[in-house]
Amino acid sequence: MPRYVVDIADAAGAQQVSFPQLLDVAIREDVSFPEVWLAAKDGTLWRHGGGPLPPRFAGQEASPGNVTGLAVALDDGLWVLTDHRALWRRAKDGGWSRIPVPNGIEPLVDVTVHQGAVWIVRDDGAMWRTTDGQTFHETTSLIPFKRLAGRNADDLWGISLHPSANLFRQTSDGIWRPAEGGQDKSWADISVSVEGTVWLVATDGTVWTTTDGIGFLKASGDGFSRISAARFESPWAVKLDGTLWIWLPRPPNPVPPPPTPPPPPAPHLPPTMPSEVRPQLNVSTSGSGESSVFHVTGSGFIAGAEVTIRGARIGADGVFNFYWSTQASAQRSIAVDLPIPCVSGLSISFSANDGRRDPHDFTDRFWSNTVPTSCP
Predict the structure, then answer these.
(1) Are 302 and 308 in contact (CB under 8 A)?
(2) Alpha-carbon distance 31 to 230, whole Å?
(3) How far apart are alpha carbons 323 and 312 in whole angstroms?
(4) Per-residue model confidence as pLDDT tens digits over 39-71
(5) CA–CA distance, 329 with 199 (Å, rounded to integer)
Protein backbone atom coordinates (compact mmCIF):
# COMPACT_ATOMS: atom_id res chain seq x y z
CA MET A 1 0.00 0.00 0.00
CA PRO A 2 1.27 3.54 -0.66
CA ARG A 3 2.81 5.27 2.31
CA TYR A 4 3.52 8.67 0.81
CA VAL A 5 1.15 10.95 -1.08
CA VAL A 6 2.29 14.16 -2.78
CA ASP A 7 0.24 16.95 -4.28
CA ILE A 8 1.34 18.15 -7.70
CA ALA A 9 0.32 21.25 -9.65
CA ASP A 10 0.71 20.85 -13.41
CA ALA A 11 -1.01 22.25 -16.47
CA ALA A 12 -3.98 19.96 -15.81
CA GLY A 13 -4.45 21.38 -12.31
CA ALA A 14 -3.96 19.95 -8.83
CA GLN A 15 -3.52 16.19 -8.54
CA GLN A 16 -2.21 13.63 -6.07
CA VAL A 17 0.41 10.95 -6.66
CA SER A 18 0.85 7.98 -4.31
CA PHE A 19 4.36 6.63 -3.76
CA PRO A 20 5.20 3.19 -2.41
CA GLN A 21 7.55 2.90 0.57
CA LEU A 22 10.85 4.50 -0.43
CA LEU A 23 14.39 3.14 -0.03
CA ASP A 24 16.85 5.70 -1.40
CA VAL A 25 16.98 9.29 -2.70
CA ALA A 26 19.34 11.22 -5.00
CA ILE A 27 19.41 14.74 -6.42
CA ARG A 28 21.73 16.93 -8.46
CA GLU A 29 23.91 18.97 -6.11
CA ASP A 30 24.10 22.37 -7.80
CA VAL A 31 20.56 23.46 -8.72
CA SER A 32 17.99 25.30 -6.62
CA PHE A 33 14.90 23.15 -7.17
CA PRO A 34 16.28 19.80 -8.34
CA GLU A 35 14.47 16.78 -9.62
CA VAL A 36 14.39 14.21 -6.83
CA TRP A 37 15.03 10.63 -7.90
CA LEU A 38 13.75 7.86 -5.65
CA ALA A 39 14.22 4.12 -5.37
CA ALA A 40 11.29 2.34 -3.74
CA LYS A 41 11.55 -0.70 -1.51
CA ASP A 42 9.74 -2.72 -4.18
CA GLY A 43 12.53 -1.88 -6.69
CA THR A 44 10.60 0.67 -8.75
CA LEU A 45 12.03 4.05 -9.79
CA TRP A 46 10.20 7.31 -9.06
CA ARG A 47 10.69 11.01 -9.74
CA HIS A 48 9.56 14.02 -7.71
CA GLY A 49 10.51 17.39 -9.10
CA GLY A 50 9.90 20.56 -10.99
CA GLY A 51 9.60 22.39 -7.67
CA PRO A 52 9.44 24.24 -5.49
CA LEU A 53 6.52 22.73 -3.62
CA PRO A 54 4.16 21.40 -4.77
CA PRO A 55 6.10 19.98 -7.74
CA ARG A 56 4.89 20.26 -11.32
CA PHE A 57 5.25 16.52 -11.80
CA ALA A 58 5.78 13.32 -9.82
CA GLY A 59 5.38 9.66 -10.63
CA GLN A 60 6.95 6.36 -11.57
CA GLU A 61 9.67 6.14 -14.23
CA ALA A 62 10.82 3.21 -16.37
CA SER A 63 13.87 1.41 -15.00
CA PRO A 64 16.15 -1.40 -16.20
CA GLY A 65 15.52 -3.56 -13.16
CA ASN A 66 14.87 -3.41 -9.44
CA VAL A 67 16.69 -0.26 -8.31
CA THR A 68 18.76 -0.43 -5.10
CA GLY A 69 20.93 2.72 -5.32
CA LEU A 70 21.06 6.10 -7.08
CA ALA A 71 23.37 9.03 -7.88
CA VAL A 72 22.84 12.11 -10.10
CA ALA A 73 25.69 13.70 -12.09
CA LEU A 74 26.06 17.36 -13.05
CA ASP A 75 25.00 16.53 -16.63
CA ASP A 76 21.66 15.22 -15.24
CA GLY A 77 22.73 11.65 -15.93
CA LEU A 78 21.20 9.24 -13.41
CA TRP A 79 23.46 6.38 -12.28
CA VAL A 80 21.62 3.38 -10.89
CA LEU A 81 22.44 0.09 -9.20
CA THR A 82 19.98 -2.78 -9.66
CA ASP A 83 19.24 -5.79 -7.51
CA HIS A 84 21.58 -7.82 -9.73
CA ARG A 85 24.23 -5.35 -8.46
CA ALA A 86 24.73 -4.09 -12.02
CA LEU A 87 25.45 -0.46 -13.00
CA TRP A 88 23.22 1.51 -15.38
CA ARG A 89 23.06 5.10 -16.63
CA ARG A 90 19.96 7.03 -17.65
CA ALA A 91 20.69 9.88 -20.08
CA LYS A 92 18.88 13.21 -19.92
CA ASP A 93 16.64 12.09 -22.82
CA GLY A 94 15.46 9.09 -20.78
CA GLY A 95 17.49 6.41 -22.59
CA TRP A 96 19.13 3.67 -20.50
CA SER A 97 22.52 2.03 -21.09
CA ARG A 98 24.17 -0.70 -19.08
CA ILE A 99 27.72 0.15 -18.09
CA PRO A 100 30.09 -2.69 -18.97
CA VAL A 101 31.72 -3.20 -15.60
CA PRO A 102 34.74 -5.56 -15.86
CA ASN A 103 34.40 -9.08 -14.50
CA GLY A 104 35.16 -9.31 -10.81
CA ILE A 105 33.94 -5.84 -9.88
CA GLU A 106 30.30 -6.75 -9.26
CA PRO A 107 28.26 -7.14 -7.07
CA LEU A 108 28.02 -3.40 -6.34
CA VAL A 109 26.43 -1.78 -3.28
CA ASP A 110 27.03 1.96 -3.71
CA VAL A 111 27.53 4.58 -6.43
CA THR A 112 28.39 8.28 -6.13
CA VAL A 113 29.66 11.13 -8.33
CA HIS A 114 32.76 13.08 -7.28
CA GLN A 115 34.81 15.59 -9.28
CA GLY A 116 33.34 14.46 -12.59
CA ALA A 117 33.99 10.76 -11.96
CA VAL A 118 31.64 7.95 -10.96
CA TRP A 119 32.80 5.93 -7.95
CA ILE A 120 31.42 2.47 -7.25
CA VAL A 121 31.75 0.19 -4.22
CA ARG A 122 31.67 -3.61 -4.20
CA ASP A 123 29.99 -5.53 -1.39
CA ASP A 124 33.38 -6.28 0.23
CA GLY A 125 34.34 -2.57 0.40
CA ALA A 126 36.60 -2.46 -2.67
CA MET A 127 36.28 0.66 -4.87
CA TRP A 128 36.69 1.77 -8.49
CA ARG A 129 36.23 5.03 -10.39
CA THR A 130 35.46 5.84 -14.04
CA THR A 131 35.23 9.07 -16.01
CA ASP A 132 33.91 7.59 -19.25
CA GLY A 133 31.90 4.53 -18.18
CA GLN A 134 34.34 2.24 -20.00
CA THR A 135 37.67 2.37 -18.19
CA PHE A 136 37.65 1.59 -14.47
CA HIS A 137 40.54 2.39 -12.12
CA GLU A 138 40.71 0.56 -8.81
CA THR A 139 40.92 2.86 -5.79
CA THR A 140 40.60 0.25 -3.05
CA SER A 141 42.30 1.19 0.21
CA LEU A 142 43.23 -0.71 3.36
CA ILE A 143 39.91 0.51 4.74
CA PRO A 144 36.87 -1.20 3.21
CA PHE A 145 33.97 1.20 2.59
CA LYS A 146 30.21 0.81 2.29
CA ARG A 147 29.25 4.42 1.40
CA LEU A 148 31.04 7.22 -0.46
CA ALA A 149 30.05 10.85 -1.02
CA GLY A 150 31.66 13.79 -2.77
CA ARG A 151 30.87 16.80 -4.89
CA ASN A 152 32.44 18.64 -7.81
CA ALA A 153 35.31 19.92 -5.68
CA ASP A 154 37.43 19.21 -2.60
CA ASP A 155 37.51 15.99 -0.60
CA LEU A 156 35.84 12.61 -0.85
CA TRP A 157 34.12 11.25 2.26
CA GLY A 158 33.32 7.66 3.15
CA ILE A 159 31.76 5.37 5.76
CA SER A 160 33.74 2.26 6.56
CA LEU A 161 32.20 -1.18 6.25
CA HIS A 162 30.24 -2.72 9.12
CA PRO A 163 30.67 -3.19 12.06
CA SER A 164 32.73 -0.05 12.65
CA ALA A 165 30.85 2.29 10.24
CA ASN A 166 33.22 5.16 11.00
CA LEU A 167 33.65 8.39 9.02
CA PHE A 168 36.76 8.91 6.86
CA ARG A 169 37.98 11.69 4.58
CA GLN A 170 40.22 11.45 1.52
CA THR A 171 42.15 14.67 0.91
CA SER A 172 43.97 15.85 -2.23
CA ASP A 173 46.98 13.63 -1.45
CA GLY A 174 44.76 10.55 -1.90
CA ILE A 175 45.16 9.39 1.69
CA TRP A 176 42.15 8.32 3.74
CA ARG A 177 42.15 9.68 7.29
CA PRO A 178 39.59 9.10 10.07
CA ALA A 179 37.44 12.08 11.06
CA GLU A 180 38.51 13.49 14.40
CA GLY A 181 34.93 13.92 15.57
CA GLY A 182 31.82 11.78 15.43
CA GLN A 183 33.64 8.68 16.62
CA ASP A 184 30.93 7.95 19.15
CA LYS A 185 28.55 7.29 16.28
CA SER A 186 28.14 4.57 13.69
CA TRP A 187 27.01 5.97 10.34
CA ALA A 188 24.49 4.60 7.84
CA ASP A 189 24.50 7.14 4.98
CA ILE A 190 26.33 10.26 3.82
CA SER A 191 25.98 13.08 1.28
CA VAL A 192 27.90 16.33 0.61
CA SER A 193 26.24 19.60 -0.42
CA VAL A 194 27.61 21.96 -3.07
CA GLU A 195 28.48 24.34 -0.21
CA GLY A 196 30.67 21.63 1.38
CA THR A 197 28.43 20.56 4.27
CA VAL A 198 28.57 16.83 5.00
CA TRP A 199 25.15 15.41 5.92
CA LEU A 200 25.17 12.11 7.78
CA VAL A 201 22.54 9.63 8.92
CA ALA A 202 23.57 7.67 12.01
CA THR A 203 22.57 4.05 12.50
CA ASP A 204 20.18 5.24 15.22
CA GLY A 205 18.25 7.27 12.59
CA THR A 206 19.43 10.72 13.68
CA VAL A 207 20.88 13.25 11.21
CA TRP A 208 24.10 15.23 11.72
CA THR A 209 26.19 17.78 9.81
CA THR A 210 29.88 18.64 9.75
CA THR A 211 32.12 20.75 7.53
CA ASP A 212 35.48 19.61 8.86
CA GLY A 213 34.94 16.19 10.42
CA ILE A 214 35.67 17.68 13.85
CA GLY A 215 32.57 19.53 14.98
CA PHE A 216 29.16 17.93 14.47
CA LEU A 217 25.68 19.47 14.73
CA LYS A 218 22.50 17.45 15.15
CA ALA A 219 19.64 18.25 12.77
CA SER A 220 15.99 17.98 13.75
CA GLY A 221 14.11 14.73 13.37
CA ASP A 222 14.91 11.04 13.67
CA GLY A 223 14.02 7.71 12.13
CA PHE A 224 15.97 8.37 8.90
CA SER A 225 17.85 5.89 6.72
CA ARG A 226 19.03 7.74 3.54
CA ILE A 227 19.88 11.35 2.70
CA SER A 228 20.85 13.45 -0.33
CA ALA A 229 22.28 16.95 0.18
CA ALA A 230 20.91 19.85 -1.85
CA ARG A 231 21.85 23.41 -2.57
CA PHE A 232 21.06 26.04 0.10
CA GLU A 233 21.34 23.32 2.78
CA SER A 234 17.92 21.84 2.06
CA PRO A 235 18.59 18.08 1.83
CA TRP A 236 16.03 15.43 1.03
CA ALA A 237 15.87 12.24 3.08
CA VAL A 238 14.00 8.96 3.39
CA LYS A 239 12.82 7.56 6.70
CA LEU A 240 12.80 3.92 7.73
CA ASP A 241 9.02 3.94 7.24
CA GLY A 242 9.54 4.77 3.55
CA THR A 243 8.39 8.40 3.63
CA LEU A 244 10.15 11.34 1.96
CA TRP A 245 11.27 14.46 3.86
CA ILE A 246 13.02 17.77 3.18
CA TRP A 247 14.74 20.21 5.53
CA LEU A 248 13.96 23.86 4.89
CA PRO A 249 16.35 26.29 6.61
CA ARG A 250 14.85 28.84 8.94
CA PRO A 251 16.37 32.33 9.09
CA PRO A 252 17.63 33.36 12.54
CA ASN A 253 15.26 36.32 12.45
CA PRO A 254 11.80 35.92 10.99
CA VAL A 255 11.09 37.44 7.62
CA PRO A 256 9.33 40.77 8.14
CA PRO A 257 5.68 39.74 8.20
CA PRO A 258 3.65 41.03 5.31
CA PRO A 259 1.13 43.55 6.51
CA THR A 260 -2.11 41.73 6.49
CA PRO A 261 -4.41 43.00 3.83
CA PRO A 262 -3.27 44.74 0.68
CA PRO A 263 -3.46 48.53 0.69
CA PRO A 264 -6.56 49.91 2.43
CA PRO A 265 -9.08 51.72 0.27
CA ALA A 266 -8.83 55.49 0.05
CA PRO A 267 -12.20 56.71 -1.21
CA HIS A 268 -11.43 60.34 -0.36
CA LEU A 269 -8.86 60.50 -3.18
CA PRO A 270 -10.27 60.98 -6.67
CA PRO A 271 -9.10 58.82 -9.60
CA THR A 272 -5.84 59.91 -11.15
CA MET A 273 -5.85 61.87 -14.34
CA PRO A 274 -4.09 60.46 -17.43
CA SER A 275 -1.54 63.28 -17.21
CA GLU A 276 -0.39 62.43 -13.68
CA VAL A 277 3.20 61.18 -13.40
CA ARG A 278 3.70 57.91 -11.57
CA PRO A 279 5.93 57.86 -8.49
CA GLN A 280 9.40 56.50 -9.16
CA LEU A 281 11.20 53.84 -7.08
CA ASN A 282 14.84 52.80 -6.87
CA VAL A 283 16.01 49.68 -5.06
CA SER A 284 19.53 48.65 -4.07
CA THR A 285 20.77 45.84 -1.85
CA SER A 286 23.45 45.09 0.70
CA GLY A 287 24.48 42.05 2.70
CA SER A 288 23.67 38.55 1.49
CA GLY A 289 21.63 35.48 2.37
CA GLU A 290 19.95 35.77 5.75
CA SER A 291 21.49 39.25 6.23
CA SER A 292 20.12 40.73 2.99
CA VAL A 293 18.76 44.29 3.15
CA PHE A 294 16.77 45.97 0.36
CA HIS A 295 17.12 49.77 0.33
CA VAL A 296 13.99 51.31 -1.20
CA THR A 297 13.88 55.00 -2.15
CA GLY A 298 11.26 56.84 -4.15
CA SER A 299 9.88 60.21 -5.19
CA GLY A 300 6.68 61.70 -6.55
CA PHE A 301 4.35 60.60 -3.74
CA ILE A 302 1.74 62.80 -2.04
CA ALA A 303 3.49 64.69 0.77
CA GLY A 304 2.69 63.16 4.16
CA ALA A 305 0.72 60.26 2.66
CA GLU A 306 0.96 56.70 3.92
CA VAL A 307 2.86 54.78 1.24
CA THR A 308 2.41 51.04 0.77
CA ILE A 309 5.40 49.17 -0.65
CA ARG A 310 4.67 45.89 -2.40
CA GLY A 311 7.23 43.13 -2.96
CA ALA A 312 6.17 40.37 -5.35
CA ARG A 313 8.06 37.08 -5.72
CA ILE A 314 6.99 35.30 -8.88
CA GLY A 315 7.66 31.57 -8.84
CA ALA A 316 6.52 28.41 -10.57
CA ASP A 317 4.03 27.89 -7.76
CA GLY A 318 2.41 31.32 -8.01
CA VAL A 319 2.88 34.98 -7.08
CA PHE A 320 3.53 35.87 -3.45
CA ASN A 321 2.96 39.50 -2.41
CA PHE A 322 4.43 41.13 0.72
CA TYR A 323 3.59 44.62 1.97
CA TRP A 324 5.28 47.27 4.10
CA SER A 325 4.14 50.78 5.08
CA THR A 326 6.04 54.05 5.39
CA GLN A 327 5.23 57.76 5.15
CA ALA A 328 6.16 60.16 2.41
CA SER A 329 8.17 63.20 3.50
CA ALA A 330 7.25 66.83 2.88
CA GLN A 331 9.52 66.56 -0.15
CA ARG A 332 7.25 63.75 -1.46
CA SER A 333 9.96 61.12 -1.09
CA ILE A 334 10.43 57.86 0.81
CA ALA A 335 13.52 56.00 2.04
CA VAL A 336 13.22 52.71 3.90
CA ASP A 337 15.49 49.71 4.54
CA LEU A 338 13.80 46.31 4.39
CA PRO A 339 15.74 43.40 5.99
CA ILE A 340 14.60 40.31 4.07
CA PRO A 341 16.41 36.97 4.53
CA CYS A 342 16.86 35.92 0.93
CA VAL A 343 18.22 33.15 -1.27
CA SER A 344 20.68 34.13 -3.96
CA GLY A 345 19.15 33.86 -7.44
CA LEU A 346 15.59 34.73 -6.44
CA SER A 347 14.08 38.03 -7.56
CA ILE A 348 11.59 40.33 -5.84
CA SER A 349 9.69 43.01 -7.81
CA PHE A 350 9.05 46.20 -5.82
CA SER A 351 6.41 48.89 -6.43
CA ALA A 352 4.59 51.41 -4.23
CA ASN A 353 1.46 53.55 -4.04
CA ASP A 354 0.23 56.40 -1.86
CA GLY A 355 -3.48 55.57 -1.99
CA ARG A 356 -4.31 57.34 -5.24
CA ARG A 357 -6.71 55.39 -7.40
CA ASP A 358 -6.21 54.05 -10.90
CA PRO A 359 -9.42 52.61 -12.38
CA HIS A 360 -7.35 50.98 -15.14
CA ASP A 361 -5.41 48.81 -12.64
CA PHE A 362 -7.10 45.68 -11.30
CA THR A 363 -6.05 46.69 -7.75
CA ASP A 364 -7.60 50.17 -8.29
CA ARG A 365 -4.30 51.71 -7.15
CA PHE A 366 -1.93 54.14 -8.89
CA TRP A 367 1.31 52.18 -8.59
CA SER A 368 4.81 53.45 -9.14
CA ASN A 369 7.19 51.86 -11.60
CA THR A 370 8.10 48.23 -10.85
CA VAL A 371 11.72 47.46 -9.95
CA PRO A 372 12.77 43.77 -10.20
CA THR A 373 15.65 43.20 -7.77
CA SER A 374 17.71 40.04 -7.35
CA CYS A 375 18.60 38.73 -3.91
CA PRO A 376 22.26 39.57 -3.21
Answers:
(1) no
(2) 8
(3) 9
(4) 999 999 999 876 556 677 888 999 999 999 999
(5) 51
